[in-house]
Amino acid sequence: MIRLQKVMAERGVASRRHAEELISGGRVRVDGELVTTLGTRVAEDARIEVDGRPVAAAPARRYVLLNKPVGIVSTAQDERGRRTVVDHIGARERLFPVGRLDTDSEGLLLLTNDGAWAERVLHPRYGHEREYDAWVEGDLTEEALARLQRGIPLEEGVARAVRVAVRSRSRGRSRLSLVLLTGWKRQVRRMCLAVGLKVTRLVRIRIGPLELGKLRAGDFRDLTKKEIDAMTSAKAEPAPRPRDEKPGAIVPMRAEPVRSVAPRLERRAPVRLRVGPVESVRAGAPRVTRRAGASRARVEGTPPSRQWSATRRAGRPTRERGPRAAAGPAARPLRRPAPRVSPARPPQWRRSSRAAAQRAAPRRAPR
Fold first, then answer.
1. Within a domain: residue 354?
2. What's the pTM value of the predicted model, to 2 decimals?
């Protein structure tokens, strides 16, 4: 089942937009029934009438390969009245071009009346390559060729050439072969202009498995059944970007510097060592605690404070590291607090304090 306006467009009644107007106006009948709803689906062989007149059956599918010359517009109709590719072929069927070529470009162009087949040819997800021969003027450097492969930012996105080959090179003029996966408006010309090259002639020589061959400019031919099936049976995978090409044919991309990578070290948990108590300086000195000193003081009659201070002076075991720490507090230098120095007072303070003392002193009686 196909939408009614599409069937009418395929049978040559009108364009899809005009067919929708005919349907909304109540002028179309399908199998004797009036249809006014847009999007109504009908069979391909349905009997359609417009204003009471029967519409002929859909014509047979046709697939044409044209070697488009320069100066012909790649459209079915032109508002300016210029000659189109459909006028150049002069077919009875309602053909339309599959893709486009600029007016000043030439080469392989397909025409058909099969919309589904045209979508399989044009959409990038099916991976049909487009190969062009471009004659350019300018300084053709390796950096320019590398940029064409890396990608050129355009309005539609990043335009990238799958392969770039130098066919011939001379002073100021060269011939390139570019393979693309997209067919944006004037894509090859804009890409070359971005790298400082001006395209003087552009010819498309291949689309997927279809090649232009020895077809002369302005001539066309119908595709064979094998060629038609080859375009629809292609895998829906984009062609991979080549890494290494033969020297002299394809200019390789500039090699990036190799960065040295240090070996990765395994992370291990830190090892914690248990440090036992450090022996006292006095060999055989028992460990004396505050509680033991207090009990001994009760027996010997010595005040606990003096007993504890004597124990500290004698030295006690400690867990600190270093010889000075192990020697005990007696070996450590005594730190005395620095004397407190009052800040210097300005002279006016002295005068004020002296005047206050004079006022506070008792006055002597006059003689």
1. no
2. 0.57
Residues 187 and 105 in one domain: yes
In whole angstroms, what is the distance from residue 22 CA to residue 16 CA? 10
User: Are the C-beta atoms of residues 74 and 85 closer than 8 Å to each other?
Assistant: yes
Residue 229, SS3 per DSSP: helix
User: Which tens digit of pLDDT belongs to each residue from 118-143?
Assistant: 988 988 888 899 999 999 999 999 99
What is the spatial distance between Cα 96 and Cα 231, in angstroms, rounded to a whole number? 17
- Supply the range of the domain harboring residue 94: 63-253
Q: What is the distance between the alpha carbons of residues 325 and 331, in angstroms, rounded to a whole number?
A: 8
User: Over the stretch 222-250, which tens digit does the pLDDT of each residue have?
Assistant: 999 999 999 887 554 444 444 434 433 44
Give the pLDDT confidence of 265-294 residue by residue, as tens digits. Answer: 455 555 554 544 444 444 444 555 555 555
Same structural domain for residues 109 and 248? yes
Residue 3 β-bridge partners:
41
- Tens of pLDDT along 329-348? 655 566 666 676 666 655 55
Q: Is 190 in the same domain as 117? A: yes
CATH at 235: 3.30.2350.10
Could you give the CA distance from residue 150 to residue 156 in angstroms, rounded to a whole number? 16
Mean pLDDT taken over the chain: 77
What residues are labeled active site? 102
Cβ atoms of 98 and 122 within 8 Å: the answer is: yes
C-alpha span between 130 and 175 (Å, rounded): 17
Q: DSSP letters of 250-295?
A: BPPPPPPPPPP-PPPPPP-PPPPPP--PBPPSSTTPPP--HHHHHH
Which residues on neighbouring strands pair with residue 106, listed in sequence order? 203
Say if 311 falls within a structural domain. Answer: no
Task: Give CA–CA dist 7/58, Å, rounded.
Answer: 8
**Number of domain units in the chain:** 2
Same domain (yes/no): 197, 105: yes
DSSP 189: H
